[in-house]
Design brief:
62% helix; 0% strand; mainly alpha; 80 residues
Length: 80
């Protein structure tokens, strides 16, 4: 999947997370099993820390459930 600079600019504008940080996280995600609950919790906590947004245990559980059960939208660009 290829993202344009405009995508990264929108993400950075909304989250203050730069393109290189996003790409580094993407590499980490590619190297891990996203169906693994431990990996997902680590990724959620990393993103929470990077963006300065708190994620409650309930929200974390909902995200993990959505990812494990393939209920995540495939077109991420539309979410931003």
């Amino acid at each position: 999947m290829s993202f344009s600079d405009s995508f990264f600019n929108r993400v950075e504008k909304k989250t203050s997370v730069d393109k290189n940080t996003i790409l580094d996280l993407a590499k980490k995600l590619q190297q891990n099993d996203l169906k693994n609950e431990g990996t997902l919790r680590e990724v959620i906590q990393t993103l929470s820390s990077m963006t300065g947004r708190d994620v409650s245990k309930e929200q974390e559980d909902k995200i993990i459930n959505a990812v494990i059960n393939d209920k995540v939208p495939k077109d991420i660009d539309k979410l931003i």
